[in-house]
Design goal:
Growth Hormone, Chain: A; mainly alpha; 0% strand; 73% helix; 2 domains
Amino acid sequence: MTTLSRPTLEVSHRGWLTASIMLATIMQVLDTTIANVALPHMTASLGASQEEITWVLTSYIVASAIATPMTGWLVDRLGARMLFILAIAGFTFFSLLCGIATGLEEMVLFRVMQGVFGAVLSPLAQSTILDINPRERMGQAMAVYGAGIMLGPIVGPTLGGWLTEDFGWRYVFLVNLPIGILALFGVAAFMPKTPTKTRRFDFFGFAMLALAVGALQLMLDRGQAVGWFQSAEIWIYTGLAISGLWVFGVHCLTAEDPFIDFRMFRDRNFAMGMLFIFVIGLTLFSGLALLPPLLQSLLGYPVITTGIVMAPRGVGTMISMIVVGRLMGKVDARALVLFGLALTMLAFWMMTGFDTQMDRGPIIWSGLLQGFGLGFVFVPFSTLTFATLATKYRGDGTSMFALVRNVGSGVGISIVTSVLARMVATNHEEIASRLTADAPAVRDLVPGLLAHNQALAAQIDGLVTQQAAMIAYIDNFHLMLIFTAMALPIVFLLRTNTGAPKGPTMPAGDH
């Protein structure tokens, strides 16, 4: 197998182009988490209830999930450069409209359009970075891409909290304007025109995949709020997701020109990569979703302090990206992934020792360790996933990679949210059952409970709730540790390959 000695797509300013497309990617990834902390402030402004305002998040996530698989087809029809320009311009424009929305209906519509235009940015950025870098620079290129993908969710809640408190919730969306304009001009100036390719659009296949993904995301986002399978709504979403996925699979296996060519999954690295990124998605974003409410609601940290305490996680990621970019090609990529998983597991083990009286040290050190470990996981693993995949599948491959990562994240967040709610109630009941009249601790330490002191009873109940919640968080950290361990065997099924991907080398538009 010959060595790939030059980039697939020749560019004259690779560094500036990389910076421009990563600006766009970071902007899109930020929007998956940056609006979370602003929801309470939006409620009054948009005239929505607490339940209705969650559609600001759900609409964006569902629209993005449905549109992501279209990336490969759109690259073929429009070319990577034109698609980038349209996606950045559309995302920036609808960010502006979100920032000036006056009602919930407007906001949900604009968030849907944000999700549609933003969906292609992450897979398109990954595909372009793979196209413009030669084989020997692939590790460093994936380090740059990984930094944007992983830092966005970490920075999002902190940046969102600061903007909301100091400037107002509308700036959570308006902050995208300068970033989007810079990215737009950068791509327009530095990315060469890419050829297009005539490719039939398999509407039926896309419709079935969209039905499955959309229903799954709605089930995950709405499940906890409506009591999961106690609600007919969740049963409907589940039925639609299963039937849509089944029909989509049968159609793609039998159609002459399907929406997704399943032959790409014959590549073992790519197939194992999809499974691996799903498992990592379970832990990456769900772990991040747990920390802000733990720090703010349970430990009483202000938003700014929460951001400062969580910042070392991002620092660890940045350091590891630099280190692993230099190690790629010199050390077996699988060994780097195993090392990163071991550090991530160690970080989750440290987090199982959290308590309500701890100082900031355990939070900072576990975050730094986890961020450092995740950098060692994401970069070499992403490189291995696409190391042997034929170039013609790269557009569809990166879109499926992004879709599976997002679905894994949605499943993970739903699992930890549900486990947290259920375990708080279970732990509260378990602890309260021990505070009986004949318990020595009650007689010796809080005899006022026996005298029916209502104020004291309320105070004790608050302490019980606090301890029950902390135990529930620890239960979730144990679960994240198990999920991370589940990814270990997959690494041994990956193959290292320093040669070129199978199949002909093509320009970026000819995937």
